[in-house]
Every structure is written in structure tokens, then in C-alpha cells.
Specification:
31% of the residues are buried. The protein has helices at 404-412, 435-443; strands spanning 22-25, 28-31, 41-46, 49-53, 57-78, 84-91, 101-108, 113-120, 127-140, 144-157, 165-168, 170-175, 180-188, 191-192, 197-206, 212-220, 223-232, 237-245, 252-254, 256-260, 273-275, 280-282, 289-296, 300-302, 306-315, 321-329, 332-341, 346-354, 361-370, 383-391. Strand 7 and strand 8 form a beta hairpin. The protein is mainly beta. Strands 3, 4, 5, 6, 7, 8, 9, 10, 11 and 12 form a 10-stranded mixed beta sheet that branches. The longest helix is centred in the last third of the chain and has 9 residues, at 404-412. The radius of gyration is 37 Å and the shape is elongated. The protein folds into 4 domains: 16-175, Sandwich (Immunoglobulin-like), CATH 2.60.40.680; 180-282, Immunoglobulin-like (Sandwich); 283-391, Immunoglobulin-like, CATH 2.60.40; 394-449, Orthogonal Bundle (Type 1 dockerin domain), CATH 1.10.1330. It contains 2 helices and 30 strands.
Length: 449
């Protein structure tokens, strides 16, 4: 739309894409139908140089400097699409300060380019001065270098004339994100009497794109063993040495780990900590056997079906021991197994509980170890697991009735193996939740205790 008034005063209302006003060729500027404006304005990327990291977002502005009577603008920009992804483009505040505006953008993601244009609406004067035309936000996909190339631009005034201008693009340097990691932790020895020392080797590496300084802290469980500061160039690594004096520590297993502090800009912190593959066992100078873990295969089991009770026992003493381990259901002995263990060694025992003949109800599962009468300090009292419920086959949640809640749990775990599926949903205990379990559930539908 063009309004013509006294003195042939013309307002430009046509889309800017239809106004071939000027074209940038190489580093020069080719102007078409220039106005009589006396200076040269600049359309530029700010900041002109950006240094950032993979995975980060950054924003740049396209600004205009020293313009008079700006009524509308258009620019085209491209970049390296394999390195950058434009996530948003928004209109700047400069032109809209003069009234209502129409803003439009056309993004080509795969081609790595965007066209943006904006114009005032109505019979208003243009804006003079300097300010922001648009803000572009990018996400960094990969490391490298990319131009932010303003390869086309146009400014028009309120009379529909071009405003001579120069274009100035930008450049982005993209580095691998800051990332320090603990790549290895080793301990020696892995079994010892209290008062002796453990040697800890922690290897750390700078996986990022720039030099970093950071702290590395060695722990035993949550107790700090020591802290060391390290400076590493990109891609370099170093092994740090810590010594743990075990004086005052009690018998048991200790997890040794090393943690690298987070460096500025680091997004991946999952590799900042690592534990040694083997725990350190502090021994008792004598006979000492302990049950360290009990894990029934199910917490709810249908009457008449079986579950395993996984029990771990360990020799914390300094002698090789042969002993009995007994699993209990309340005060009732379930099974006993005899085992021989060397000093510092553990083993896993599996007891099978067939619930046929057991009444509905809750059963406390525990285990105990026994040695000879001369070895009274050879065990620590029963380790209580908690409650296992015997109920109607198909009562997966253990609420005493087979209904839609149980069917929902079965459906949620359908065709999942055990684990990671819910063990209670594997009603018949064959290691997978499938049609056999569904058949059992259906056969007891709406049964209740």
C-alpha cells in the first residue's frame, strides 16, 4: 500500500522482500536507488566474536548504528549448520519504539540460514539513532569455527528510499565443553588390619577444550582422606596418589572414591566421581564371620509358589573358616548351608522358600552364621531383612484381593524379565512376566484373604 500526500510524501508499506534495494557482493556494497542521506549507517553482529562450548547456548544481536528515519529493514544471515542450530530469533527494541511493527522470519535449519524482516505500520515517522534489530539464539552442536555471515541487508526510510549502509558479520569459536573426569581409582591392599595404610591412585583427565585447574578429593565412604589441586591442559591426564591411614577404623567394608570439583561452564558432571572397583576390607585379628546382606526375591508371593533368598556372608577374620549359615522364617529354620571362606572373602548363598503349606500372612526373613564353641566372636547376630507376605496368587500389591490394581501392575511389567521388571509381578517365578502369570491372576480374580 502506498499513500501519496502533499509534496509527494510517500510511505513504504510493501513487504521488504519485494523491494530489491541493495545487495552485498563479497566485501563491497552495491546500492540501488539510494536516498540523499549524508552518512553511512552500519548493520552489524554484536558481539562480533564469540567463544563458547559444545552444548551451550549463546545469543548475538544484529544492531543498527547511526541510522536516520528507519521505517523498515531486512537481513539474511547464514552459518555452518553442522556446528550451530538457531533455536530462536526475536525482534529487537529499536524499531518497535516508533510504534506498531510487523516482524517476520524464515528459517532454514538444514541450510543454516535465516531471513528476517520488520517494518513499522501506518503513517508514522521512522526511527533515528542506534539500537537492536533482532536477537538470535544458537545452540552449539559440535566444535569448530563458524561465520555468522550477514550476506544481505536492506534499510528503508519512511519515504520508501534505501538508506546506504555497511554490513559487518561475526565469527564463533566453538570448543569442546569444559569437562574434567576421574577415569580410574585403584586401591592396594584391599584387605588389611586397622592401623595399616591403603595406597589410592586416582587418574584424572581434562576432556574439555581448554586448560583447567580443579581440586580432587579422595573419600572413604563419606570421610575425606585428602585433597589435591591439579592443573591440566586439554586432553591431558595425571595420576594422583593418596594414602589412607586406617587407624581408628572399625571392621567392615569401605568404599573408596575420588571426586573432581566442577569447573566453570562444565555441564557433564556425571564423570566427575568414580569409585574403586573393589571395596577395602578392614579385618578383625581373630575369628569374625558376618551376614552382610539378605535379599528375598519377592516381597509379596502367592501361596504355593517359590522365591529365593539371596544371602551374602563374609569372613572378616584373619583365619580361614568353615561354618554354617542358616536362613530363618521368623523362628523357623528354613535351610542351612555349610561353606568355607578364606580371610577377607565373601560368598553368596541362595536359599529356596516354597510357600506351599504356609498360611497367609507376614514372615520375617533373617539369617545367622555359627562356628565352634571356641569361636564366640565369629559372628554378628541375625541380619533382619523385614517382611515377606504370603497371599493369594495374583495379589501382586499384597492388599489382600486380586483386582484391577494387580492387573495394572502386571500390564506395566508385561514381557519384562526379572530384573528389571517387578519381581512380585512374576507370579509363577519363571523369570518373566507373561501370559502364564496373567492366567494365574485371572484364575484368582476377585479372590480375597
Amino acid at each position: 500500500m502506498i499513500d501519496v500526500g502533499e509534496g509527494a510524501f510517500v510511505r513504504a508499506r510493501a513487504p521488504l522482500a519485494l523491494l530489491p534495494l541493495f545487495l552485498v557482493v563479497g566485501s563491497g556494497l552495491f546500492l540501488i536507488a539510494p536516498s540523499n542521506q549524508a552518512g553511512i549507517t552500519t548493520v552489524s553482529v554484536f558481539p562480533s566474536t564469540v567463544t563458547t562450548y559444545v552444548g551451550q547456548n549463546f545469543s548475538i544481536d544484529v544492531n543498527v548504528t547511526g541510522v536516520s528515519d528507519l521505517y523498515g529493514w531486512e537481513f539474511k544471515m547464514n552459518w555452518t549448520a553442522s556446528l550451530l542450530n538457531l533455536t530462536s530469533i526475536t525482534e529487537g527494541s529499536f524499531l518497535k519504539s516508533g510504534g506498531q511493527t510487523f516482524f517476520y522470519d524464515n528459517l532454514n535449519v538444514t541450510g543454516g540460514q535465516v531471513t528476517a524482516e520488520c517494518t513499522l505500520e501506518g503513517d508514522v515517522e521512522g526511527i533515528s539513532g542506534s539500537g537492536g534489530l533482532a536477537t538470535l539464539t544458537f545452540n552449539v552442536k559440535s566444535s569448530g569455527q563458524s561465520p555468522l555471515n550477514l550476506y544481505y541487508g536492506v534499510l528503508i526510510n519512511s519515504q520508501g528510499q534505501t538508506i546506504p549502509s555497511q554490513l559487518s558479520g561475526g565469527y564463533v569459536h566453538l570448543s569442546p565443553a569444559p569437562d574434567v573426569a576421574v577415569t580410574s581409582v585403584t586401591v592396594s591392599p584391599t584387605a588389611l588390619l586397622p592401623g595399616n595404610s591403603v595406597n589410592i591412585n586416582a587418574t584424572v583427565q581434562n576432556l574439555g577444550g581448554s586448560a583447567e585447574s580443579f581440586n580432587v578429593t579422595a573419600y572413604t565412604n563419606s570421610h575425606v582422606i585428602g585433597v589435591q589441586e591439579v592443573a591440566l591442559n586439554s586432553s591431558s591426564l595425571r595420576t594422583l596418589f593418596f594414602t589412607w591411614d586406617t587407624t581408628g577404623y572399625s571392621v567392615g567394608d569401605y568404599r573408596v572414591s575420588a571426586v573432581a570439583s566442577t569447573v566453570p561452564g562444565e555441564m557433564n558432571t556425571t564423570n566427575n566421581a568414580k569409585a574403586a572397583a573393589s571395596n577395602v576390607t578392614i579385618l578383625y585379628n581373630g575369628h569374625y564371620i558376618a551376614v552382610t546382606s539378605i535379599n528375598p526375591g519377592k516381597t509379596v508371593i502367592g501361596q504355593g509358589y517359590s522365591t529365593s533368598i539371596r544371602t551374602i556372608v563374609k569372613n572378616y577374620g584373619t583365619h580361614t573358616e568353615t561354618f554354617n549359615t542358616t536362613a530363618y522364617l521368623g523362628t523357623t529354620k528354613l535351610q542351612t548351608q555349610r561353606v568355607t571362606l578364606q580371610s577377607g572373602v565373601s560368598t553368596t548363598l541362595n536359599f529356596t522358600w516354597n510357600t506351599a503349606g504356609f498360611s497367609y500372612g507376614n514372615y520375617t526373613v533373617s539369617a545367622n552364621v555359627t562356628l565352634g564353641p571356641s569361636e564366640a566372636n565369629a559372628w554378628i547376630g541375625p541380619l533382619i531383612y523385614g517382611i515377606v507376605k504370603v497371599t493369594i496368587p495374583g495379589d501382586i500389591n499384597g492388599d489382600g484381593v486380586v483386582n484391577a490394581k494387580d492387573a495394572s501392575l502386571l500390564a506395566t511389567n508385561w514381557l519384562k524379565s526379572i530384573p528389571p521388571g517387578l519381581a512380585n509381578a512374576d507370579i509363577n517365578g519363571d523369570g518373566i512376566v507373561n501370559a502364564r502369570d496373567l492366567s494365574i491372576l485371572c484364575a484368582h480374580w476377585l479372590y480375597n484373604v
